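Q: Can I see a sequence and its folded structure?
A: Here is a first one.
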Amino acid sequence: MTSRELTTLVLSLIAGSTSIAGTAMFALADRQGPARCPEGLVAEGARCCGVGQEHAAGRCAGRPTSCSAAQDATSEGCVAPATRVAYSGGKALLGSPDWQGHEARGSGAATVAPFELDAFEVTRARWETCRAANICPAPPLAGELGEPVRGVTPAQAEAFCRFAGGRVPTGAEWVLAAMGREARRFAWGSTGLVCRRAAYGLLKGPCAENATGPELAGSRPDGATPEGALDLSGNVAEWTREAGGYLARGGSYRAKNAAELKNWTAEATDAREDIGFRCAYPRGNGR
């Protein structure tokens, strides 16, 4: 074998090894699924758990050594704090800002007065304070303290919000918080629906499979609005007050596509396991 032939053989073997390695890496990435957990959390099944926690039966257990940047690490797990975002008010677009089909009820715009909104969905930790005051009942569904309360009726959500000094937000308030004055398609902007920004597609893909419930509130900090509200797209749909009753807005962990997560999407429904809520407050009424 000449030196040229030997060189050709070596280069061929290197190229083959590189190709095999690349194929293995792609296969591993496909097996692990798309990236969805932020720094401070690790993927465990369909969940994002705190570093150091154990995962079993769809739950994250134990004291974490780290959580997402939006959560506090507690002895009970990763829990989002009870913080609020202030809005100066303005025009809320009650419908699609483009020519795409949508499921929003009503159309046009509404003027919204200044208000504050929970930065996170109401968690079981917050609900337990209301329960301890004998105002709220036991949560309808079991879960971790950092999970959003879900399965509650609009009346139960209103009772909690009154306890907290507020009320369930109107549809116009919720839409203004989610869409902003620039009429964003999703909470963070008009493009970029990926698994690291919204807890969706966790039941049968595209982000995970076989989820038994939502993620902890605050597990998708990359999906925050420019103003600082999290989980307005995905995780659990959220009750809003409307002229004709209540609607659930924002899509949930069960959503499979962009149409279910766009900010103007809403549906009329009874209490359901993938519906939670957050509260709105008068401007400057912090506690």
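Q: Show me another, different protein.
A: A second, unrelated one:
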Amino acid sequence: MDALQAQRRSGWSVGAAGSRLFYDGLVDGDRAGSNSWRANLPSLVSAISPTRPALLPYFVPTLFQVLDAPDFSQGLEPIRTRWMDEAEAKGRALADVFRDHPDVDVHIRDTALLIDAPGPEAVAAAAGVADRFEPVFLFDNWPHPRGVVPSHEVIAATVYDRPAFEAARARRAPDAPPAFVIDSRRLNPYRDASDEFDNRYLARLPGPEGFQRLSVRHLLYVTNAPVEHEADDLNDDFVALRAAGIDVKMVALSDFRRGDAGTAAYSYGGSSTPHIWFWHSYGWYPPVRTVQAGSPAPSPALGLSRGASYEPVARTTIFSSHAVGGLAGIGKQKPSGFGRVSVRTSRATGAISIERSGSLGRSRSSFFGG
């Protein structure tokens, strides 16, 4: 049975009732220092939903629907970690290169972001860019006490950053482009072990026609650190976007760092002129002012990723040929044995129990990430 189906039918902690979820970085209140976050949980989905009507079909609220499940919210607490703080600061620096600036001719409404980082950092980075990009969450699973994807941390981080998302709504342009947000741990390796629950899931992006309806001409794939290529479940999507004339490039949050002078603010490559350096590398919006003679050009020698030269290339993965198009990724199929659990059904009551965490006949491959 599909893991999410089993959870919705028999409880989010099916097979591990009474087990605890563990959170790193617990804090007393949300970002605003308020303790009213628990009373406000019923409105969390509406608070983080896109306000731009064209983006609503692509919002995936699945993860946050677990808040309606009995007993889940009792152990929930907000979290804040130093990695979240850094991701948010780097997100702000990324958004800053897209702001109006006399040195570069930027019209950001034709560029979308896809933030693919570990869950809490992805949420924090989304909060960092939320003044200029509208976050669209794509978290399509439920937490589980034995889950290989610790998605409860995403909910805890979102609870903490909710005030930031709400405040950004008032400052953001009504036609702001989207920042799709996904947890890079969604493809965590699974060992088919009896103490693990396979709650992995796939990213559900708009297809090429969806991006075109949103007037998106460029997609910037944002990872936590430099990667050789996109995550496996995104390869078909990115290749299709390239074929439709939508340019896809990468950038790593680690490309944004504090300057050599030790300033507190992050910028692209630590530069004092990040707009010039960034668009000199990426070229989507040409700088009005050229780089000064004798200044070092952005290069791997400075420790920057090669994301500006990235182009999607078709490659074989376990997800190849499992996407058949459709709105917001609807129709993308999970491979056999992915995100599934083996269950036993009672003939008398129809109730199900987890027989093993794994799936009979599961592939033994343990690498699924990008």
